[in-house]
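For concreteness, we quote verbatim a single protein encoded this way:
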Amino acid sequence: MSGVMESTVGLADPKRDLARFEDQLVDAARRVIASGFYINGDEVRSFEEAMGRALQLESPVVGVGSGTDALILALLTAGIGLGDEVIVPSHTAGPSVAAIRAVLATPVFVDVEADIACLDPNCVAEAISSKTKAILAIHLYGHPADMDRLKPIATHHGLVLIEDCAQAQGALLHDRPVGSIGDLGCFSFYPTKNLGAIGDGGAVSGGAERLKVVRKLRTYGWSEPQYSDLPLGRCSRLDEMQAAFLNVKLPLLDADIKSRRRIAEIYRDRLAGLPIELPAERPGAYHAYHLFVIKTDFRDQLREHLSKAGIMTGLHYPFPVHVQPGLSEGTRTAGPLAVTLDLQAKILSLPLFVTMTDAELDKVVGAVQDFFRGGR
């Protein structure tokens, strides 16, 4: 034995992804330091305008402190609070539901569609009650939810349709960017996201009138400095330094999504024919591949096999929200959530990140093939 440990393939590698921009990021940091303006300065305004253009919107987005804050501020802007219900999938990350609880509204859990793991419009329609005020459509893993069916449901019932785009920045539906289809869109710039900062950050997209409210709420409800005319205001501003970093990275987002899609296509080609279900991409959808999530009846055994081979994997998500006491108390569950429970036992996220090398891809693919072709 050589005594040299075989290299590990990470699930993501934000450090390596960021290294591509190191010189520009250092220049951006120096620019902010030299400016003397550290809150809501030129970098924030520039980024808000650029992202608004990238989303094909007439209004700049509003930068906020995190993706969770983006959801909270969107819900508050929609007038949602105590006694109101918000329809949301149980198969999601906990922060989506934590935001609903933070405004004292009631999450109503519904099932997802088996192929894309996003809200099932049929279940949404059946879950609507007199208390329902909003639908939170989560574009999970990078694939758009079925907005073609969700939007008419929301319109018919007079509901606010909010998009959770945290995992799907760069995704399209009929050539429209996610975050430009519903009434409000919410984004996260957590470091591992498709457009990641070097810390927390988020943004809200939507029409000009709604975004005026978001802009007030993010700074104590102020309509002018030191004068608040809206209740429930918060302190949630996108940091000037993070905005500067995002200004460096945003112009390269489309290229990064193409890199993610290239890696996903290699996985598709080389894992085809194995007893696993590969991620779906519906007609008209442009998957942003924040995650590459397969499904298999041998999930736990495969995960152990890959771990022994030095390959990190993920579970997104191991516990449906409706079974988590800290998030489900006092909520309502509509239907048996059979698809959600089935997904919980089968999903496995394989490594996928922009700077993933061909050698790393070969290692992952080879280990998966080995498992199903006798290695287990």
Summary: The chain has 14 helices and 15 strands. The CA atoms of residues 121 and 150 lie 6 Å apart. The longest helix spans residues 253-271.
